[in-house]
Design goal:
This protein is an alpha/beta fold. The protein has one domain: TIM Barrel (Alpha-Beta Barrel), CATH 3.20.20.80. About 40% of the residues lie in helices and about 15% in strands. Helix 13 runs parallel beside helix 14. The chain is globular and about 55 Å long. The model has no long low-confidence stretch (mean pLDDT about 100). Bound molecules: D-gluconic acid. D-gluconic acid binds next to loops.
Length: about 450
């Protein structure tokens, strides 16, 4: 049982669940073009067992069944992403009509079930031909992305409840170009600085494009991770502040304040693309809401290596199957801080929150009390922020389905619904049943 019901929330508060295209659809279906994730995954050492998104959950063929599950649980909204390479197999130029038709059917299927469609236009599978041209390192990506935005939104924009251009700019920039853990797997500070700026420029261009199409309820989705200093020395505090700088504040500050944090620019400054100072009018195109994806915190210690002169150390709290500490307080702190420092009265959404576990099926049942406890603890933080006047308007759980967890392959199960990756059978977990009670009890 969960310790909340819908009645504990303001009228109109939205409960939703989320997935993404490459992680669920099955990229081999329907004429989608190759992406940088496909080649990244095909290169030894990048992804557990070199698994990829070819089949994933076969959501491409099973979306109706999946949306029945969303509706039956009592959710109001469903967050999904559209695949650039499915719509434009070359990234530009010729449209794959089958891909557009797919998202058209998907939009209708959501509305038929009374679900609000919440779209994200990029969740990490860049068309390979654009990666060949430098991908996020190339300033032209802002224009390519705006063109793709126009094509997909001309087709489905009329039925979207909300749209965000890019999921988690930190992952697109830092994780993929500095840490090398996601495609394209670079570890290069110049590539990082360029990608971090261009991802925001592309975000802004997409917002402008959608405004010109007359769309509204447009936002941004940022993954925020709390940074705790390893001890109370000044050096550790600075180290955590820098982690917070390039993980969280860089993107929020770029979009909502038109500048980048000084501590981040001490390292990235010399590597920034030419003319970056002049892009903030685009980057800061006004938004209607701000989405926060929250999972965990990191404990940060200083070192005397090259910038950013710090590293993560293992924290003392209970961990999920991702080895991520469970730290609900961070969600509360981010809701308070984001409203106070960046967004003011703008609606905030928790656009992702959830946890991975092994979730083994036994006698046709999956008991996941750990997930129920995780969700309960985080929802309690949302309620606390609401009680203090933060304008939180919705809470989305990652994820509806167990799916492709990127470099970690298919082992890390985040779903409310278990997926057997041999048969593709779906089995709702006990967390799904608990949510159904919380959301449908009157
Ligand atoms: C994320 C992503 C998802 C991940 C999830 C768990 O936004 O980070 O949207 O793709 O699967 O976060 O790591």
């Amino acid at each position: 049982m969960l310790n909340f019901t819908r009645a504990d929330f303001p009228e109109g508060f939205l409960f939703g669940t989320a997935t993404s295209s490459y992680q669920t659809e099955g990229h081999s279906f329907g004429g989608a073009g190759p992406t940088h994730w496909d080649s990244f995954a095909a290169t030894p050492g990048n992804v557990v067992r070199a698994e990829n998104g070819d089949i994933a959950c076969d959501h491409y063929h099973r979306f109706a069944e999946d949306f029945d599950l969303v509706a039956r649980a009592g959710f109001d909204a469903y967050r999904f992403s559209t695949s650039w390479a499915r719509v434009l197999p070359e990234g530009r130029g010729a449209v794959n009509e089958e891909g557009l038709d797919f998202y058209d059917r998907l939009a209708d299927a959501l509305l038929e079930r009374g679900l609000k469609p919440c779209a994200t236009l990029y969740h990490w599978e860049l068309p390979a031909p654009l990666a060949d041209l430098g991908g996020w390192r190339n300033r032209d990506i802002a224009g390519w992305f705006a063109d793709y935005t126009e094509i997909i939104m001309r087709r489905i924009g009329d039925r979207m409840f909300s749209v965000a251009p890019i999921n988690e700019p930190w992952c697109v920039g830092w994780l993929s170009h500095f840490l090398g853990q996601h495609a394209p797997g670079l570890r290069d500070i110049r590539a990082t600085a360029h990608a971090m700026h261009h991802v925001l420029l592309a975000h802004g261009r997409a917002i402008q494009t959608m405004r010109a199409l007359g769309l509204d309820n447009l936002g941004g989705v940022f993954n925020l991770e709390w940074a705790s200093p390893a001890d109370d020395s000044e050096a550790a505090r600075d180290a955590a502040a820098l982690y917070d700088g390039y993980y969280n504040r860089f993107f929020l500050s770029g979009v909502f304040k038109g500048c980048y944090p000084d501590n981040v620019m001490q390292g990235l400054g010399p590597h920034m693309p030419k003319g970056w100072h002049d892009d903030f009018d685009v980057i800061g195109a006004p938004l209607d809401w701000c989405g926060i994806n929250y999972y965990t915190r990191k404990v940060i210690a200083p070192n005397d290596g090259p910038w950013p002169h710090h590293h993560e150390i293992e924290g003392p709290l209970d961990k999920t199957f991702m080895d991520w500490e469970i730290y609900p307080q961070g969600l509360y702190d981010f809701l308070i801080r984001t409203a106070r420092d960046y967004t003011g009265d703008l609606p905030l959404y928790v656009t992702e929150n959830g946890m991975a576990a092994p979730d083994i099926i036994e006698n046709g049942r999956i008991d996941d009390p750990h997930r129920i406890a995780y969700l309960d603890a985080h929802v309690a933080m949302v309620r606390q922020a609401l009680a203090e006047g933060v304008p939180v308007k919705g809470y989305f759980i990652w994820s509806l389905l167990d799916n492709y967890e990127w470099a970690l392959g298919y082992d890390k199960r985040f779903g409310l619904v278990h997926v057997d990756f041999d048969t593709l059978d779906r089995t709702p977990k006990s967390s799904y049943h608990a949510l159904t009670v919380a959301l449908t009890r009157t």
